[in-house]
Structure formats: structure tokens, C-alpha cells
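Chapter review: from sequence to fold.
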Amino acid sequence: QVQLVESGGGLVQPGGSLRLSCAASGFRISNYAMMWYRQVPGKERELVARITASGGSTNYADSVKGRFTISRVNAKNTVYLQMNSLKPEDTAVYYCNRDPWAAWGQGTQVAVSL
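The C-alpha cell string follows.
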């Protein structure tokens, strides 16, 4: 059974950092590009970052470029999102998924506030 479990979210002050993890099971992430998305209530899910299957190429939304870093450890079947210099507008539920999509996980809540 394909499953994606996100973790690592929390409440952080502006300028702070968080590291999100996405543990995959039921498939090998080494065969897929992987992505991080985020969603706020009332808005569509937004693609934040993407990493190729080999990890050799990454892409970021303009809003997070230079602040977020996506990475993967295929041996652990896990994808990460390092988030630095967080801003209040980064507040959202963060999800990971593969390309093509599998069933969505529960996401992890990130809140950036004083």
C-alpha cells in the first residue's frame, strides 16, 4: 500500500527554520521525482519544490527560492524540505507527493508567527 507520511511541522517565529520529512512506503522513491506542496484554507495546493529521481536537479517556486531546499535520501525512502528564513506567508499545511501523484498524506502544519 502506497503511503506518504509528512512530519516536522510546527510553530516558528519569523526568520526561523524547520526541516520537514516525508517518509514513503509501498514504493521506492528512487524511481520517482518527488515534490513538496503547500495549501492554505480556501486556496489551491501550491507546488513548492521538486527534485528529480536522481536528485540531480531541483526546482522551486519563486516565493521560496533561496530559502527552501529539497533533498532526498533514497536509501531511507525519505524526502526532506529544509525551510530557512521563514515568513508568515509560509504558513500552510505542507504535503509531499511523487510524480505522478499517489494518494495524499495527512500533511504537516507549519505556522510562522510571533
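Two observations follow directly from the output. The chain has no helices and ten strands. The radius of gyration is 13 Å.
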